[in-house]
Write a structure and sequence with these properties.
heterodimer, A: 575 residues, alpha/beta, Rossmann fold, Aminopeptidase, 3 domains, 5-stranded parallel β-sheet, 23 helices, 17 strands, B: 82 residues, mainly alpha, Non-ribosomal Peptide Synthetase Peptidyl Carrier Protein, Chain A, 4 helices, 62% helix
Chain lengths: 575, 82
Amino acid sequence: MYTFKDLRKNSNQKPTGNSRRLAMLGNVSTQFLSVAIRGYAVLENLPLEVFDTDYNQIEAQLLDPVSEVYGFSPDSILLWLGTDKLYEEFLDLPLEARSGFAETIMSKITMYWELISKNCKANILQMNFTEIDDKALGNYSAKADTAFAFQIRKLNYLLEGAMSKQNNVYPIDLLSVQIQFGTEKFYDAPLYYNAKMTISTDALPFAAKTVIDVLKALSGRIKKCVVLDLDNTLWGGVIGDDGMENIEIGELGRGHVFTDFQRWLKQLKECGIILCICSKNNEDTAKKPFEEHDEMILRLSDIALFVANWEDKASNIRLIQKTLNIGMDSMVFIDDNPFERNLVRQMIPEIEVPELPEDPALYLGYLQQQNYFETASFTGAGSDRTKLYQAEFERTKLMMSFDSIDGYLESLEMEGEAKPFEESKYSRIAQLTQRSNQFNLRTVRYTESDIQNIANDKDYLTIYYNLKDKFGDHGLVGVIIMKKRSDTELFIDTWLMSCRVLKRGMEEFIVNQLIKRAKANGFKKVYGEYISTPKNSMVKDIYKTMGFEEISEDQYVTDVDTYKEKKIYIKEIDQ
Amino acid sequence: MERNEILAKFNEIARDVFDNDEVELTEESTAADVEEWDSLSHLSLVSDIEDEFGIRFTLAEISGSKNVGEFLDALIRHIEKK
């Protein structure tokens, strides 16, 4: 972890390239935290511009539609109501008013959110509340609603409920930093009384990390896959030497440690992280515990891709990455063996390789503290994509058995669906705009509330696409957002597609459908643009391939009447 | 550690915090003598000195020291108490 000194030294470097813009508003001093955030962003290569206001400016800045904060055009506004300040306000209330404190503060926060949404496009990073227990009633405070400890906990609970109903609010869990440090180390009384600063310099880098983690996720920098070693990582011992009955999992030896580790990994899988195995073993031997050991938590059905052989791990990880078709920087490699870790780090610098502690009992705490799996969206049940990937390998096998690609595509019995955006899909659509990097023509990132606004705006034509075939349902895999340029002209603001469905005619299906919609709505011309990023070169020429005419570099147009519908093997399902 | 050695260390930390190699503080120096010495860098200076010597200043020492000399007095008191 960086020290505050490291962060301070880097905080003055000017960001290069397209920066995110963050405005900070607090009832306590945000100055130190903003220095830490600036420095952290520089060290993590996240171009970020930070605008800091004096403390206690929240209402003045948010009420005035032409305030400095709005003038800064922030992408995000950090709202920080420091508990230390709230505590003072609480004690200044008459006793009979204190039991309503949490509700009062919560309605104030809701008002801030409304003001922000009304006056600008920024999303909101909402700090939750650290705790103070002043022992006014001792332990009894936990059941007396006039005690601060009672109210501050209630406030966190109310905040969670309110945030879960707001798409444009992202939590910053400062409380978790306080818990990690303990209040004594998290808080520095002289610093607070001197500078209204409520976080000690030791804890500041960790507080800054919580903010940076969220900003990274909002920029699409997220982890999607965990690649796991087996021996002494998922269980104690060596399966090839010790055999099924002697590996430590469940009741045997240190088994409890590995069981809990597997429980956590299984949860990650349920939340949408892909689990893969990369082990130096014979495949049969390596798979046996997953199939036959009673106490294993992870089963073969939890693993998207199982690679066990005697090749070097870097090559195997490359194979996994290619098969899944995701960025190397979205993968985490977990292995107890320092030699393997170093080899992989050296061969594949982009992949994340945690320096696991030697004692397996410490794996979990260490990995959890790294917070690799920050996300800016979560679709709940249905996030688990393991089955989709497993079906994909079945398709690959089938494809090998055909001589021609047409024969293969026909045999898939694909069915496609194209519909205007609807409310139940907003979150998945926003998630795709945030996560898709490769098949993404302009890489515009949208939040759920942006998508909602676009869906309700008459100046836009929107389409989302579903695809299924005989092996399974791919779900929502394509997004088109078209903006009216005039009564007869449309511009394709967003075209993205999940790489899982590449080369199946989905690209053609998408374009056929969008032209059909354009035509039905009386448009004559559709314009497209390609904006190059380090990751999207695969779609550089897609408009040309689809028969659009190039008007200047990366700018394309097609006439809807002369557009030739592309041949596809996807049957359109009527709505 | 002699007083002048502590002052030398103090200067080393100050040059680092103010990011200015020309800073040369004496016992009589005050914040007004150094352009970069504002409230934020003051607290950074305090925090770096605390870390370097493994001590904690009191609130009065952080906000009440008139010049570098008084700050050194406080620092030396803490070092001796250790």
